[in-house]
Amino acid sequence: MKNKKPLILITNDDGISAPGIAALVEVMKTLGDVVIVAPDKPQSGMGHAITINSTLRINKVNFYDVSEEYSCTGTPVDCVKLAVNKIMHRKPDLCVSGINHGSNMSINVIYSGTMSAAVEGAIESIPSIGFSLCNNSIDADFSASKNIVKIIAENVLKNGLPKDVCLNVNIPNLKLSEIKGIKVCRQARANWVEELDERKDPSGKPYFWLTGKFENFEEGNTDTDVWALDNNYVSIVPTQFDMTSYSAIVELEKWKF
Amino acid sequence: MKNKKPLILITNDDGISAPGIAALVEVMKTLGDVVIVAPDKPQSGMGHAITINSTLRINKVNFYDVSEEYSCTGTPVDCVKLAVNKIMHRKPDLCVSGINHGSNMSINVIYSGTMSAAVEGAIESIPSIGFSLCNNSIDADFSASKNIVKIIAENVLKNGLPKDVCLNVNIPNLKLSEIKGIKVCRQARANWVEELDERKDPSGKPYFWLTGKFENFEEGNTDTDVWALDNNYVSIVPTQFDMTSYSAIVELEKWKF
Fold it and tell me: Interface pTM (ipTM) of the complex?
């Protein structure tokens, strides 16, 4: 093998021009050969959506001085599928998504395009990580995040990941010196409440904005991602795509159909 | 209480005019008071997408002669959020989604708008079921499905469901007399391969259609949904939204960061 540098696929859901992906690219260029396939526009909240009722396009771009970089008209999951099936000549050693502008802790994992791209990487048997900074602003400061991203990515490149699992990494919005450490956690049971802001258009007809208040149902528990972040730790939740509830199988097998 | 009939919310991802939702409505009207909030256009493959970068509208319609019915400009998950937060006056006793035109077995659960609506119901602590018939055709025959749907919905209304779990029900494309029974299963480990069909537009520029071949990685195993359907059973996979891999937590806690 002429080239032993790890091959790293980068995507996100805020779009290829977001500062968060720029920070991620900067770190990954120190670790390997980088290919970027990222949405050409914001795709937040796209979850695991794929494009099946219309077509997909990719366009070669030149923002980041890496091996190959493309913007894509599709969702974050489409980007991973296109990268793995059409663009990359071998399976990447690592797939990273982010750095998201905003938290993907707890139930947000399921709505998040950033995390769905990482989950898609895992479905393709690629060690995959979604990174999010708990700051929604376009002007968020990613300098501490870059240190954290590097530590975690190096560990994954060295150790690999358990089968069929990716990582959901959330980083508190703090200076590096204020971050207490990195905690492996479980996804907190939480939800969004009061979710719809109803307004009237100029002709008086109603329309709605999705919004809402995040409510943590596990205030006391110290093993969740929400607790870790509230207490100035980076949270890592190992995340799987097997959605089977094994305990419920036992219960339902007692039913008489 | 004047009215003790169960309150049932119906949605889908094929759109409010699809024959599959008509079949579901027909059955649910025999079981309770029905409210429909369903997408105004096909939303297959939308996964757990929500609409956060644009607005949502609902329109009162009158297709099915039920208590209330609305078409919605958003995704299946948006429909559940709107129904629960804005339209329904109390929490429904049951949320059903489908009947999907096409299988949502195995990994398809994660891409499916039908199942994501059911998962959203579970997040809202509503007993929820996604129903899918293994036939993609608009002319699919739902007559056997209606029997199966009724049996399973009656059981859920009677027994409730385990906490934070919904059901992914897939029905083989067979006559009722050919269906061998109902099996509680786990989600098979499978994936889509050769996923992109590359074409040229009239000006010679490439574009892509997502497509692919379904590949089951668990040929021998008899406890999966794929096996059940291949062997003429209805499959029920209890499905959870906690995506934490608890076994991986143990492994990752050994890492030195």
Answer: 0.95
